[in-house]
Fold:
Amino acid sequence: MTTATIQGGAGRNQALVGPNLLDQVGAIISEHFQGAGKLDCLKQSSSERGPIRATRCAIVSDTNVAPIFGERVTLSLTNAGFQPVLITVPAGEQSKTLEQAGKICDEMIAARLDRQSFVIGLGGGVIGDISGFVAAIFQRGIPHAQIPTTLLAMVDSSIGGKTGVNTRAGKNLLGAVHQPSLVIDDIDVLKTLPPREFKQGFAEIVKHAIIADAEMFQQLTQFAPPQLDRLKRSSLPDELVSLIRRNIEIKSRVVAKDELDRTGERAILNLGHTVGHAIERADDYKTFRHGEAVSLGIVAAAAVSASKAGLAISERDGIIDLLSKFDLPTRLPQGFPREKIFDALQLDKKFDRGEIRFVVTPGIGSASLSRDVTMKDIRDAVAKL
Structure:
C-alpha cells in the first residue's frame, strides 16, 4: 500500500492505494478519522468544530456495486465499532439528481445520522459525485470518504472535491466543492470491471498526461492490449499502484493551485470535458460512458489546439492514436444527434458570461485556458469527429 497526500482542503487528506484494502476499511477509517478520539482531518476550519467522535455513517452505493462489495465494507466497519447504514441508488448517470440526493438524505435522517456522522461513497464517479454532494449539504456539511470502484474514479473523479448533480439542462450544474477526507483505492476491485469500464479510465489518464506529464504520455504509448489486460487483472500490481498514484498527484497539484476553480488554473483539468459533457447530454447519457465521451472531447480539443494554440499535427495525431490504443472512441457514430451537442454547450458551466473558456494544449505536457476559441472552432472540430 502506498499513501498520497491530497493537496487542497483543510486538514490531512490522503489517498491510500494498494491491494486487499476493502476488508481493512473499518480499521483504516478508525485510524484516519478518529485517531485519539478526534477527527482533526475532518474539520472544515480550525474554529468551526471541536473534537468529534463519529460512529454512525452512511455507505452510499449503487445497484451494480452494492451487491458485490456492500456487505464486505459494512462488515468491516461494524467490526471496527461503527454503525453503518447501506443506501443503494439505481446505477447510472440518471441517479445524479436533486430528487435522488433528497432521498439519500431522508434515509440518513431515518437512520439517525447527525453532524457527528460521515458519508462513504462506494462506487464509480456517479456515486462519488452524489455522495459527496449529500455530504456537503447534510447538516450543512459532514465528512466524506471515497472508496472508488472504477479506474476512472480512482485517478480522477475521487480527487479534487468537486461534487454535484445534474439538471435537465446539463451536467453538474448544481454542486459544491467538498474535499474527501480519505480516499481508499483497492486495486483488486478493478478485476471485477468489464473491459469497457476499465478502459474508459484511461481517457482521464491520457488527459493528465497531455496537460501535465509528457513523460507519462510516452510511457503510455508503450502499452499493448495484452499488457493492458494483465494490468486490469493486477498481475502487475506495482505498476498499477504507481500509475494510479501518479495520476492522483498530478490532479492534486493542479487542484491545490485553484481549489475553488476561481482563477482558471484548475480549469486545465477540463481538457476534453466541454465537448465531452455535451456529447453525453446530447443523447441523455445513453451511448457513451463518461470516459468515452471525454475521449471524443479530447480529440475535438486537439483539433482546436492545432488550429488555435500551435499544437503540432504529429502530436495531434499521436493523441488520437493513443486513445485508440485503449479502445476509446475517436469518431462519433452515424446518426448521433450532433446539433444537440451545441444545445448542451450553451449551458455548460465552463462558459463565463456567455464567453467560451476552452482548454487547449500547445504541446503534450502543458495546457492553458483560452478565450480565443469561437463556437465556429468547436463546430469545425465536432464536424471532424
Summary: Confidence is low (pLDDT under 50) at residues 35-52. DSSP finds 14 helices and eleven strands in the chain. The first strand starts at residue 2 and ends at 5.
